[in-house]
Write a structure and sequence with these properties.
The protein is of the alpha+beta class and 257 residues long. 14% of the residues lie in helices and 32% in strands. It is rod-shaped. Mean pLDDT is 83; it is low at 23-31.
């Protein structure tokens, strides 16, 4: 731009010089034009040069380190996870050192964190003492303390009754048809106990048979020690028994005349 101005002034000067040759003497002389041109050039030279407009430099927007949208928790010691805030609640899980769990809620009054139960379904309450939570917890759901579990009733101890020996039988009889050298017939008795395992049948002191519980008769084919002549009698005995012992024997003596 500055060069254009100087070129323009020079052209004007030349045109003025040429014109001066043909003008009357009353016009300014060449010396005067040269002086004016020198003043004009000096004035132009003193004019400030146009300033360049600086190109703006754009600074990049710094990248922000994101905070996890879902809070997470780790522990410095293996920690139980329960159905509520305290040892009175059932223990249903644990968070061990090195594991990371998702925090889904909190209880401000106790400080407990509610987390997804590691390796299981559902949630549990994590003891906060050894817990470190990362992420934004401001919007976590506030959980209410659940009711304390009702303790299971302590079973009442019922002692097993001590087994007692059975009661003796009663009213032992012998049906015998005479003459009868073998002393055969049918024994009868009354069962007076409800805890016997069975009955032992004796003839003349010899065990002849053991029969089931609740029996009330036994057929004697022949009494031990026979044949028996007239006037000789046999002794028949019935004895109730169980695991605790034996009842007293009850007997009947029977023979033929």
């Amino acid at each position: 731009m500055f060069r254009r101005k100087i070129t323009l002034v020079v052209c004007i000067f030349l045109i003025s010089a040429l014109s001066a040759c043909n003008l009357p003497s009353s016009e300014p002389t060449a010396t005067e034009d040269s002086a004016n041109l020198a003043l004009t050039i000096t004035a132009l030279a003193g004019s400030p040069s146009p300033q360049k407009t600086a190109t703006p430099q754009f600074t990049g927007t710094p990248e922000l380190t994101g905070t996890p949208t879902v809070p997470q928790v780790t522990v410095s010691q293996n920690t139980n996870c329960r159905t509520g805030p305290g040892i009175q609640y059932d223990n249903i899980g644990a968070l061990v050192i090195g594991q990371v769990a998702t925090v889904v809620g909190k209880n401000t009054s106790t400080g407990y964190w509610i987390i997804n139960n590691p390796g299981k379904t559902g949630t549990c309450w994590l003891f906060p003492q050894y817990a470190t939570v990362s992420g934004n917890t401001a919007n976590l759901q506030e959980y209410s303390i659940p009711p304390t579990p009702t303790p299971s009733p302590t079973p009442t101890f019922t002692p097993t009754p001590t087994l007692a020996a059975p009661a003796p039988v009663n009213n032992v009889t012998m049906d015998m048809v005479c003459p009868n050298a073998s002393h055969s017939g049918t024994l009868h008795w009354e069962d007076k106990s409800n805890n016997e395992d069975g009955f032992n049948i004796y003839g003349n002191g010899v065990l002849m048979a053991s029969i089931p519980a609740n029996s009330t008769s036994y057929v004697v084919a022949a009494a031990p020690g026979g044949p028996f002549p007239g006037g000789i009698a046999s002794i028949f005995e019935v004895e109730a028994f169980n695991g605790a012992g034996k009842a007293a024997k009850k007997s009947v003596t029977k023979g033929c005349p």
